[in-house]
Design goal:
2 copies of one chain form a homodimer. The first copy, chain A, is α/β, with parallel strands linked by helices. In chain A, 25% of the residues lie in helices and 29% in strands. At the A-B interface, β3, α2, α3, α4 and β8 of A face β3, α2, α3, α4 and β8 of B.
Chain lengths: 257, 257
């Protein structure tokens, strides 16, 4: 039976990354694209509760079809699975994102949030990002996407897990292989540029530099830096289990009035 | 030395919950409020990169002062710590949120994201939410906020940990105590209400019901339901460590072109 594949992203349905992803996997099953109408980067795991969500059908001559959604990546996946698609997909692919989703960036990533939403809904889900903002080598990331999609369609993913894939921005022949990694701890260290508008109001632009913090051995960040594709299993249970005993030890007693 | 406390939230700087939180802790240190100018619920861990972020000073006769920020809760904490405050705060409190942040809801929560941002910046951070949308008993949640703030100012939090606190919507004398919990697995199961606008365009409203999924013993959801305040240590490392061996076992070989 033909597999059903849902594609989404956060750069928007008109981005080159989602087109490259479509082309890479279009012959692996019935592919439908449900993605934001506009760019939705760094939206984190946002959902739209207080506004209506518009969905406009899209069909291109090359077979690329689906819906442009006036919402976040998480909205797209929820809406697709719960309302737009006739049946649950066998695989969700989110990407290809322009720019890495490694280290702490993962928690701000719309690309990853689409895949997280898929995992919450019990569907094997993969986020794919390309590790550069300049002269993106979509063909390398597309090759990775196809290989990983085939693997997941064949063997699935562990329960409650999505796969966060980051691809080095190299020619395909220079990629050194795959590495299973953990999420790094490094993050952008913010600088805020303070300005004043013509009316005298203060505003800020957020900017920053990636700072390598602590030991990053075995992380997504180092793997990509060394020319490997990183495969990081991610989940949505945020409990810090190692910290439970410390909180328990407080033995906090409720002070009744 | 006087402790510095930063307050934020996602319901906005004019919400009753943040006022109740301010009043509960104002004598515990130098308190400053940096919160969204408008409501920012279910924004997840979004940050504002492509737009300028406005910050307008606010001061009320009761001493409540700080900045109303045209951004998300995560923006507020970043901007406060990196640009607005003269020194790093000793404690960040986010809330009091109207409505619970338990189970899967945690990943959509702006309230929790403000505290997560604090933890990323290395500051002890606490999110406080009240378990009902109707007739909120702010006085109960305020009492909890004060007690937990005192505990954290005294003893800190484990590294890389924020504390997610959920308060049952009961009179203070009926609260049964504190419980250290894990994040539940239950979630809203979405329904989408399909409508057509006067121009014939299709749109959807997202709605849903909380569905108890699987064994929720020991979770935030059950604790609040049974009349306890839940204390859940949360972190920002999303790696699903238990799933690492399964991905490694794929032993995926890179297919060079």
């Amino acid at each position: 039976m033909k597999k059903r594949i849902l594609i989404s992203n956060d750069d928007g349905i008109h981005s080159p990354g989602i087109q490259a992803l479509y082309e890479a996997v279009k012959d692996l099953g019935d592919v439908i694209v449900v993605a934001p109408a506009g760019e939705q980067s760094a939206v984190g795991h946002a959902i739209t509760l207080s506004d209506p969500i518009k969905a406009r059908p899209i069909a291109r001559p090359d077979g690329f079809h689906g819906f442009a959604v006036g919402g976040t990546p998480a909205d797209c996946v929820k809406l697709a699975v719960c309302a737009l698609l006739p049946e649950k997909p066998d695989l969700i692919l989110s990407g290809i994102n322009l720019g890495p989703n490694t280290g702490i960036s993962v928690i701000y990533s719309g690309t990853v949030s689409a895949a997280t939403e898929g995992a919450i809904l019990g569907i094997p889900s993969v986020a794919i990002s390309l590790g550069s903002y300049q002269t993106p080598r979509w063909e390398t990331a597309a090759r990775v996407a196809r290989q990983v999609a085939q693997q997941v369609l064949r063997g699935g993913l562990p329960p409650d897990t999505l796969l966060n894939v980051n691809v080095p921005n190299l020619p395909a022949k220079s990629v050194r292989g795959y590495r299973t990694t953990r999420m790094g701890r490094s993050r952008f260290v913010e600088k805020f540029d303070r300005r004043t508008d013509p009316q005298g109001n203060v505003y800020y632009w957020m900017d920053g530099d990636l700072e390598l913090l602590g030991d990053e051995d075995g992380t997504d960040i180092i793997a990509v830096r060394e020319g490997y594709v990183s495969l990081t299993p991610i989940w949505f249970d945020l409990t810090h289990r190692a910290a439970l005993p410390a909180v328990k030890k407080w033995n906090l007693k409720w002070r009744k009035p």
